[in-house]
Amino acid sequence: MSSSTTPPSSPFLPGPGPHPETGPPPPPPRTAAVIPAAGRGVRLGPGAPKALRTLNGTPMLVHAVRAMARSRAVSLVVVVAPPDGAAEVRTLLDDHALPSTTEVAVVPGGSTRQESVSLGLAALPADITDVLVHDAARPLVPAETVDAVAAAVRGGAPAVVPALPLADTVKEVDPRTDGGPETVLGTPERARLRAVQTPQGFNRETLARAHEKAAPEGEGATDDAGLVERLGLPVVVVPGHEEAFKVTRPLDLVLAEAVLARRRATDGF
Ligand SMILES: Nc1ccn([C@@H]2O[C@H](COP(=O)(O)OP(=O)(O)OP(=O)(O)O)[C@@H](O)[C@H]2O)c(=O)n1
Ligand SMILES: C[C@](O)(CO)[C@H](O)COP(=O)(O)O
Fold first, then answer.
1. Is the CB of 113 under 6 A from ligand 2?
2. Counting CB atoms within 10 angstroms of each CB, which of 37, 153, 198, 204 has the fewest?
3. Which domain holds residue 152?
4. Exposure string for 43-71, b = 16+ CB within 10 A, e = fewer
């Protein structure tokens, strides 16, 4: 056997050095999760900021951080705390057991979800190549959903959303500002609609560009993939999960605690 075999080419191994024509090899992939947790939770009713409210005794944010850290793809979690609550959130996280293999940073957030995500992105170290953006308000997302999103990004998709088909028929309405009844403008074909969840996954450079472009335009989007769509790039859909629902209204707390109780009974955690 020849002793001059070419070293195997792998994105996980140091490459043989810059290629004379194509330049340096791409950096090895490293995935971070950004968790926007700076919202008040107005729709949940009076109380602490939503991410700090408890589900079966544990803050929603801790459930969300653990859900991200459970994915082997994620080695860093950046939590975006309420603007004046970063120290409190740091203490809260230090008081709860988190996987030691995952680094957890905390930064203060902004007045909109989009601004909070931008602030989280700005805090990422240079070697992060892929980003998962995950609502603290979706504390029960299963690891398989996180892994599926992370894998699709590593596979080359610029943006990935987990999504589910809708159970209800959706109407487009003409919203009235004068207190009169809304009227229906149309009924989109339900089979073509999806309810999207988080984590949404992105190539880091793509997401940063999408946020930079959105900021000066002042037109917000209700999710990060919506900003990537405006760049004209494809957004890939992977199966979502019923347990990745967003805790938005009081009834969602009842459902979340029931899911946790069932998990404890069947899985022991
Ligand atoms: N300024 C904001 C607003 C929202 N979020 C986060 O974005 C996620 C999704 O938002 P949503 O469920 O709408 O939370 P709230 O904005 O807190 O809810 P509400 O609209 O009822 O106040 C949540 O994890 C929330 O903490 C954020 O980081 N910064
Ligand atoms: C990002 C999101 O969870 C996708 O469904 C959703 O758009 C967040 O919306 P909200 O206005 O912050 O509740």
1. yes
2. 204
3. 31-168+190-267
4. ebeeebbbbbbebeeebbbbbbbbbbbbb
Q: Give a yes or no: residue 150 inside a domain.
A: yes
- Structural domains of the chain, count: 1
- For 88-138, write each residue's pLDDT tens digit: 999 999 999 998 889 999 999 999 999 999 999 999 999 999 999 999 999
pLDDT digits (tens, 9 = 90+) for 197-242: 999 999 999 999 999 999 777 678 999 999 999 999 999 999 999 9
Residue 4 forms part of a structural domain: no
Q: What is the distance between the alpha carbons of residues 80 and 37, in angstroms, rounded to a whole number?
A: 5
Give the integer Cα–Cα distance in Å for 128 and 118: 15
pLDDT of 30-57, one tens digit each?
Answer: 999 999 999 999 999 999 999 999 999 9
Cα–ligand 1 centroid distance for 61 (angstroms): 12
Name the pTM for this structure: 0.91
144 C-alpha vs ligand 1 centroid, how far in Å?
24
6 CA to centre of ligand 2 in angstroms? 48
The verdict on residue 175 lying in a domain is no
Q: Is 82 in the pocket of ligand 1 (CB under 6 A)?
A: no
- Three-state SS at 86: helix
Residue 57, domain CATH: 3.90.550.10
**Residue 169 in contact with ligand 1 by CB distance below 6 A:** no
41: its two tokens: 């939770």
Do the domain assignments include residue 248? yes
